[in-house]
Amino acid sequence: MKEILDEESKKALISYRIQRAYETLKEAEVMIRESFYNAAVNRMYYACYYATVALLLKNDIQTQTHNGVKTMLGLHFVSTGILPLKVGKTFTTLFEKRHSGDYDDFVYCDEEMVGELYPQAKAFVDVVDGLIKES
């Protein structure tokens, strides 16, 4: 996001991104229920991505790419201890699995993998939402 937002617009966008994060987790639940595991991983990643973008915006950290979002999360929140390493790794794992599932041939996520990742994605969004509300 290149334009400068006034404080009210910034708060509205942060709120919207967190809302999208929770809605996207619900989309993941539907994909899991219907056994669309690659799509579920995609939705889990995007839920975490939306939450992370909100956190970065809250802290006036700008990025241009998905990789930039991942890098800035690590630099400003994981390496500083604000976000626990285990929680930060969830974003990296979903980033890699989503990319592979979306772009590589013959990559299939399975029920077991998704069963492990979904609670981590939910916890990630909850923790990031908490960080936003604290500051």
TrEMBL record:
Signal peptide interval? none
Gene3D superfamilies under this entry?
Nucleotidyltransferases domain 2
Instruction: Specify one Pfam family.
Output: HEPN
What InterPro entries does the record point to? HEPN_dom, UPF0332_toxin
**Locate the HEPN domain: which residues?**
16-129
Q: Which family does it belong to?
A: Belongs to the UPF0332 family.
What is the protein's name according to its record? HEPN domain-containing protein
